[in-house]
TrEMBL record:
<dbReference type="InterPro" id="IPR004046">
    <property type="entry name" value="GST_C"/>
</dbReference>
<dbReference type="GO" id="GO:0006749">
    <property type="term" value="P:glutathione metabolic process"/>
</dbReference>
<dbReference type="InterPro" id="IPR004045">
    <property type="entry name" value="Glutathione_S-Trfase_N"/>
</dbReference>
<feature type="domain" description="GST C-terminal">
    <location>
        <begin position="114"/>
        <end position="247"/>
    </location>
</feature>
<dbReference type="InterPro" id="IPR036282">
    <property type="entry name" value="Glutathione-S-Trfase_C_sf"/>
</dbReference>
<comment type="subunit">
    <text>Homodimer.</text>
</comment>
<keyword id="KW-0808">Transferase</keyword>
<dbReference type="Pfam" id="PF14497">
    <property type="entry name" value="GST_C_3"/>
</dbReference>
<dbReference type="GO" id="GO:0004364">
    <property type="term" value="F:glutathione transferase activity"/>
</dbReference>
<dbReference type="Pfam" id="PF13417">
    <property type="entry name" value="GST_N_3"/>
</dbReference>
<protein>
    <submittedName>
        <fullName>Glutathione S-transferase, N-terminal domain</fullName>
    </submittedName>
</protein>
<feature type="domain" description="GST N-terminal">
    <location>
        <begin position="31"/>
        <end position="109"/>
    </location>
</feature>
<dbReference type="InterPro" id="IPR040079">
    <property type="entry name" value="Glutathione_S-Trfase"/>
</dbReference>
<dbReference type="InterPro" id="IPR036249">
    <property type="entry name" value="Thioredoxin-like_sf"/>
</dbReference>
<dbReference type="InterPro" id="IPR010987">
    <property type="entry name" value="Glutathione-S-Trfase_C-like"/>
</dbReference>
Length: 252
């Protein structure tokens, strides 16, 4: 559930009472880097991948935002995860966080040097964070995972079916890109690959990706899944929702 974009079904806390808003760009002394996250949020996973790829040590703090006592609104008045606390700052919005991290820790680079190439990376990040999320990740994960975790009733099979049907269009699109490129946005791995992998890994956790559908996409995911940055994601376990048997296997 804990997606970032309100128009795509972001969690909206029931209470709207606030005594003040946190200043997202105001720093205060602190040496510990913390990421407030939830395990099967693609947006949180995207930031985790970037942090791990750049070998930035971070303390992961799960925010079960649907339970009483969550401080999500204090950390981010938009009521969305992830939130990164770094150098005393509270930072929200996964794309902004990832690009910030890439600027302050340039190596290994996840954004190309040329403007046209950076445009392509950002375009594909938007494709997955907006279109793929709206058509596939959000409806499938909401019905199959979050309703169970939050005790919101039974899944709507029609919604799940529509989401799983839509994924084939996206796999076809990825296949068309990978037929001419080594990675999604070009010949080097970029933030676009991490963004796509963050969404697909959530669905793979519940075995909702048919990897036999496209050899190109399967090989791409195998490459990115085998990176050291992916290890913490493969160790995730959401209480009450068990991962698919193949989820943590590099040979799938």
């Amino acid at each position: 559930m804990a997606v970032e974009t309100a128009r795509h079904g972001a969690y909206q806390p029931k209470t709207r009472e606030r005594t003040g808003f946190p200043l997202m760009n105001t720093s205060s002394p602190s040496s510990t880097i913390r990421l407030y996250h939830v395990a099967l949020s693609p947006f949180c996973r995207k930031v985790r991948l970037v942090l791990a790829e750049k070998r930035i040590e971070v303390e992961l703090v799960e925010d079960r935002f649907w339970e009483p006592g969550s401080e999500i609104l204090r950390r981010n008045p938009a009521g969305k995860l992830p939130v990164l606390r770094m150098e005393g700052r509270l930072m929200a919005e996964s794309q902004a966080i990832c690009e910030y991290l890439d600027e302050i820790q340039p190596q290994p680079s996840l954004m190309p040097a040329l403007p046209a190439e950076r445009y392509e990376v950002r375009r594909l990040c938007a494709w997955f964070d907006d279109k793929f999320n709206a058509e596939v990740t959000r409806p499938v994960m909401t019905e199959r995972v979050w309703k169970k975790v939050m005790r919101l009733g039974y899944p709507d099979s029609r919604t799940v079916k529509a989401g799983l049907s839509a994924i084939r269009y996206h796999l076809d699109y990825m296949k068309s890109l990978l037929e001419h490129r080594r990675w999604l946005a070009g010949d080097v791995m970029t933030l676009a690959d991490f963004t796509a992998a963050a969404h697909l890994s959530c669905l793979d956790y519940i075995s909702d990706v048919d990897w036999t559908y496209s050899t190109e996409v399967q090989e791409w995911y195998a490459k990115i899944k085998s990176r050291p940055a992916f290890r913490s994601l493969l160790a995730d376990h959401l209480p009450g929702v068990h991962p698919a048997p193949h989820y943590a296997l590099l040979d799938f």
